[in-house]
Amino acid sequence: MAAQAIADGVERGWKIAGVLVAEDDAVLIHNRIPIDVPVVDEVDLEGLRRGALVAVEVVAEGRAYRAMADPIALSAALQLGHDRLRDVAEFTRELADAPAIAVTARTEPPEPPAVEDDYVDCRVGGEIVRYAPAAAHGVLRLEPPGSAVAVRLSAIPAAADGIATDDAFFTDLAAIDNGAWLRRGVADARGTVVALLAADALTDAAATLSELTGRPATTLATEPAAAARGAHTTPGLPPGSVVCDIGGGTVDLIGQGRTVTAAGAGETITTAVARVLGIPRALAERIKRTPALRVEGPHVAHEEDGRRVFLDSPAPAEAIGRLCTRGSAGLVPFSHRLAAEEWRSLRLAIKQETVAANIARCLATFDEPPTALVLAGGGALDDELLRTVGESLRSARVVVGRADIDGVHGPRFAVASGLVHLYAEQRVGTTARA
């Protein structure tokens, strides 16, 4: 019916430059009309006024040229003033990989934003300054850990009414939205990942443990101090090295006579991966650590390094045409949009903007860069995290390595080993004094 109406218009002498369709019928209509014009389907036609200028373009298969993705060309086509060019340029980023484009200028003002009652209170230059959460990403990366003293975020139940904090770290996912390598629409780079370290009063657990067990208990050291002692059993560790203990919620940097604890560690990576891919956290926890492959057929897959490999056994139907991770029970699909190489770049970017950037923020508080930074904890098992932290500190000429606790345990068990060593040293000291 639509194709016939267009054909009738052509017979009447109408000048038709393009066709906009609300439903998914572009190919069908294009094949049935007597003129060769761009046909764009699945267009939101609600509110489109009669006579409005609309920029329309369909990209031919195998071509990368998009005239309307050029902000200057789009502004000219829609007769927009130069004062709107920057806004148009930001908008056209979303068109960079679009196979079809239909754009018109907004004819009505946007809905006013909701009242912004969330905030982040930061200590800047000795004063407490209140920022909107949208501005916290940049501020907290420039200020040292401990600058965020209070946060109210309605989206987080624990902070909905305001919470005192010892630290906070915000990661605006737009920071990983790099159009140079990430195609538009393959990942959801909206939103902010928030890590909070609540300002809870410290209590000595030894007294509570003694009361519960009826046996004597003592606190040998803080967790960061124990981790540092354990990490210093690493063979070949250079003198003056700083230890970085990466946990699930915090990172601790210990060295040069100081300890820096900051919010934001392994869980921020998991949360960011789950958000940008729209997958459950349990699956995000699995895929954040290891390379993936895109299954091209029952027997062939495409690896992240570009190699094509034969699968050991036929891939299940749900894995074909999808990006998968290797699980204990076989291939587990998690995305049908991303290419394997694209996911690798995105994964590294997430680690760079979350944990690696946080560690660099912490290290900036030290008087001088250490010779080496040794990573301990479960996060240090991630080779890519070792790499991204190293890249973040490359300009500071800091060597980044991995702890090997007691020369046998790898980077884990730093706290446990440290407690054993501290207890033994305390016992030896007590015996010597006796």
TrEMBL record:
Start and end residues of each Diol dehydratase reactivase ATPase-like domain: 120-423
Pfam families hit by this protein: DDR (PF08841), DDR_swiveling (PF18427)
Sequence ranges assigned to domain DD-reactivating factor swiveling in this UniProt record: 2-97
Entry coiled-coil feature ranges: none
Protein name: Diol dehydratase reactivation protein
